[in-house]
Amino acid sequence: MKKVLPILGAAAIAVILFTSCGGKQTADQSNAISTVDTAGLAQFEAFKKQQEFAAQYAAYQATMAMNAPKKSSSTVNKSKQTTGSMNTSTSYPAKTAEKKKGWSKAAKGAVIGGASGAVLGGVLYKKNRALGAVIGGVVGAAGGYGIGRHMDKKAEGK
After folding, report:
1. How far apart, in whole angstroms, are the C-alpha atoms of residue 156 and residue 158?
2. Are 129 and 122 in contact (CB under 8 A)?
3. What are the pLDDT digits (tens) for 105-152?
4. Structural domain boundaries in the chain
5. Which residues make Cβ contacts (< 8 Å) with residue 139, sequence separation at least 6?
6. CA-CA distance, 20 to 18, in Å (whole number)?
């Protein structure tokens, strides 16, 4: 049995090599093989291309919608007509999107100072690294907050 398995494996490899490198086909035979479409492959490929085109077109439309200039007006006039010649018009102010504020410089300074202080405290206090990290983080956060708050006040004064 031990000798049969390697022989079967070698025979299988030989068969694969000989069949893949086998006889050459003429141009007529290769065209005849490629033109036969029994599984509807050509229809599937056409459908696939159509779906890809539709996805690309949808992405293009979304891009164009985002890049289109937006019309903005300060007021919107609406008029209501009632019986006779009585007209009333009401103007509503347009809603303006408020700009979201990010983190203040004081908050950023506290986070950066706390993180760097924790790392330095853990490295420098070798007896108890956790305690060193906690103390360093508190001191660093306080220092970073103070510096960031000073920068905030300087920016408000401009």
Report:
1. 6
2. yes
3. 899 999 999 999 999 999 998 899 999 999 999 999 999 999 999 998
4. 128-158
5. 117, 121
6. 6
